[in-house]
Amino acid sequence: MNVITFQGTANFLAMIYPSSFIIEGITYKSVEHFYQAQKIRELVNENHAKTIIAVNDTTSVRRVAQGILKRCRVDPNITKRWKMNRCANVLYRGVWSKFRQCPELASKLLKTEYKLLINSFDGDDIFTSGCSPVQLREWIRAHFGCVIEVPYEFLPADQFPVIAQGYNILGVVTMWPRDNDFIARENVLDVETSFKPAVGADSMTGTQGHNIACAREAARRRDVFARKLGINAIVDAKHEKTSDKIIVINLSYLLILLSSKCIDC
Fold it and tell me: Can you tell me which residues the record assigns to a coiled coil (predicted)?
């Protein structure tokens, strides 16, 4: 079983799961707090971001952020473009900090091993699979034996592979620190360098350094991962031919071979 699905507010993988961490001297109560605060910080200003940080209930953070954007008359198209281009970058910093600063949660994350993490929720098609758990299971069964290329670089959301009816950004981004063994080798990614404040909603800061690190990591792991999947060989991305036993991948990607069953986390 190469797939783990998660949903619900009480799941430790969720954005709204209460788990405080510190970034640049500021304490955030959850990944949702950091993500929404950074969005308001970049699209409005720091004072309004402080309003987000002060919210106690993690389930209310998104609603408060939406209210601020509306009151400040931020064009919805600008917000949408920001989400599309910045969500993976911003979300990763929050996820990385959450698990890096909480060894207990980090241990639980590492126990998911190489499995594909999928956030199943039908209210969003960017962060999640965009469908219900039942629909997701049906999709997994229908794609039994298919290979999913998991990107390890900061791409616009619509360049991530479609999982069921969404891009599953949260699931993919949560796999990045796990697969980089970030606890044992914390310098794999230079997080502080990779996440300097954006200059405008379309900025993709820190991408080059992150991509180089992840490409090296993917290259180091690809043969081990292939053995786990039962794949005989992986050839370089320059080659175009594939067969049942040879799969072409880019060095900035890892492969997940879907099984017919999944595990609820």
Answer: none
In sequence order, the 6+-apart residues with CB closer than 8 A to the CB of 194 are 89, 93, 205, 206, 207, 209, 210
| Torsional sign, CA 225, 230, 236, 237 | negative
As a whole number of angstroms, the distance between CA 6 and CA 13 comes to: 7
- Give tens-digit pLDDT for 30-69: 999 999 999 999 999 999 999 999 999 999 999 999 999 9
Write out the two tokens for 140.
């997994």
pLDDT in tens, 213-242: 554 555 455 544 444 444 433 333 333 333
Question: 0.90 exceeded by the pTM?
Answer: no
Sign of the torsion angle spanned by Cα atoms 52, 57, 61, 67 = negative
In eight-state DSSP terms, residue 200 is S
Please give the single-letter amino acid code of residue 23: I
